[in-house]
Please model this.
Amino acid sequence: MVNRKELRPDDSPRAAYGAHLRRLRENQGWTQEDLAGRTSYSGQHISAVETARKPPTLPFSREVDQVIGCAGTAESLERLWNEIRYGSLREGFPEYVDYERRAVEIRSFHLGIVPGLLQTPEYAQALANGDMRRGSITQQQADERVAFLMERQAALARDRPPMLLVVMDESCIRRSVGGAAVMGAQLERLIEFAELPNSVLQMAPYEIGERRPFDLPVNLLTLSDRSMVAYAETHAQGYVDRDQATVVKLLTAYHQLQAECLSQADSVAAIEQVRKGMA
Model:
């Protein structure tokens, strides 16, 4: 115990992670060198993470979780790393993104803003900057939010990309974000998306009124084993639902929504009309 440095977990998220790592290690009765001998990391590296001199990483968190036996539990370092890394995101969203990366089909409905997977960097930055100016996030968090979104988009650009079925409320294209130039480029991006072989884009016009079954954004994921996961969110938080009975009900409502929507061709024509009106 000689030279044991006192930790101050309240100083920062990184310090809280380090203190949690030390507690997990000591609960096993291990020294830093004991833990190092069971992982691919040195004792010096573990010491630096515990004392917040080095930032934790996802590979480190997962490896230590496996060694200690807390993977997938409330005690896991990966869970804490996610909280640190995605602290500017809604609760539940990092869990959803993990499913999203493995999905073979993605169905989504959005109101007010263009869905994240279809946003241009400039549009996404304008939204994040708006939250920053209102004081809900910092500039660093705004930049991290946009970078994370770009990572999500890149993760879906694979050899066998998922099928993306997107329904947007008409408000998504009517609400101008970032000014005419940013919004015009965003609308052009939507038109390009509709031309992809793995895409379906439809608009829910205002005229469908009460026949629109959703009043909040909804995401439905089909995984490779054909199981499904749903994700819905409010302004404050998100929630991942794996109960198949609930997901099937949402899927039925989604199909009913699609039946009320414009066709993809008519949706693209409506987007093009709005885009031209901004020129």
